[in-house]
């Protein structure tokens, strides 16, 4: 067994053991294996023989294949596609020799990618993104006039969907490169809404770096540069920027700025129906969801505001899965902070039902699950299974 596989096997043994609330000594006794052997296996320093593997699996009450291969997780499909995404954008500014696709076919495929993003179907995006990034770049380099502007918008939208995968799965460097590509393409569209959308997505890089004050300043500049809210699309673009600014202001511990931007988003949302505008969800329900997000971002002293919203409103099924699951994850965090672990666990289960890929990769969901596991005295099988699934042990 190669050394990297031995490490993976040892890691899975440790995760399952902790989920069963067993010490290494407990596992050694139950498996009739020496304690030094268990320690060496969990460190990845030793590969278990077939007999030892069978004994450990029996002691942990799992099939041996679960220890060897793990479950068929979505993240393995995503991670397998990330090198191809990186390669597709490595020479983004150099025209390739490939024949350009028709813009109509490309637009249909890019729209499908955006639907998967809103539905938190990251594995599907990851598998299609390398090809669509290459085709979008080819189109941009081969088109002229109005077609080139359209191709630039399609490239920007494709980069956004690919970035959702990279960012959600923790590949921050690749995410930053995709955001830069999105901004580069948006600047070539001559479309201020596309540029506002790129500024909205760019905030991820500030979240990742915990540069919240700088991110707030960047968003406020983007709001000033965005088109006047005189139509549906322009109103939604500016409203989305205000929603995003409210959240990052909360992370920056600036409640006045958070409330200002939330109020502006609320005012603009009153003039629009809930919907997806240029690939970004905006409307009265989205603002409600962001009220919870802002309260949680501001910290424990503001948690009651999040709980108050949840008492009166929950996301309708018509909202995209990613945003609905985000609401339940943030509510779970608030419930943990207020000593309601049972309610928090129920919220996490709702989030998983709505968007399992999004929930499993969300750091706050993992943190909340780990905290709930520590707080619960009784060994609830469903909680153990959940924390193992999310990797919180």
Short description:
By secondary structure, this protein is mainly alpha-helical. The protein has four domains: 3-69, Orthogonal Bundle (434 Repressor (Amino-terminal Domain)), CATH 1.10.260; 74-189; 191-313, Serine Threonine Protein Phosphatase 5, Tetratricopeptide repeat, CATH 1.25.40; 320-393, no CATH class. It has helices at residues 3-19, 24-31, 35-43, 50-60, 64-69, 74-90, 103-118, 122-142, 145-168, 172-187, 192-209, 212-225, 232-251, 255-269, 284-298, 303-312, 321-337, 341-354, 356-361, 363-375, 381-390; strands at 275-277, 280-282.
CATH class of the largest domain, named: Mainly Alpha
On the 0 to 100 scale, the average pLDDT is 90
**C-alpha-based Rg, rounded:** 23 Å
Report, as a whole number of angstroms, the end-to-end distance: 25 Å
Structural class: mainly alpha
Helix and strand run: HHHHHHHHHHHHHHEEHHHHHHH
Tell me, briefly, the overall form.
Answer: globular
* Spatial order of the strands forming the largest sheet: 1-2
- CATH topology annotation of the largest domain: Serine Threonine Protein Phosphatase 5, Tetratricopeptide repeat
Classify the beta-strand content into a percent band. Answer: under 5%
Number of helices: 21
Overall number of strands: 2
Number of domains: 4
CATH architecture of the largest domain: Alpha Horseshoe
Largest beta-sheet details: 2 strands, antiparallel
Question: Which spans have pLDDT < 50 for at least 5 consecutive residues?
Answer: none
Give the helix proportion (percent range). over 70%
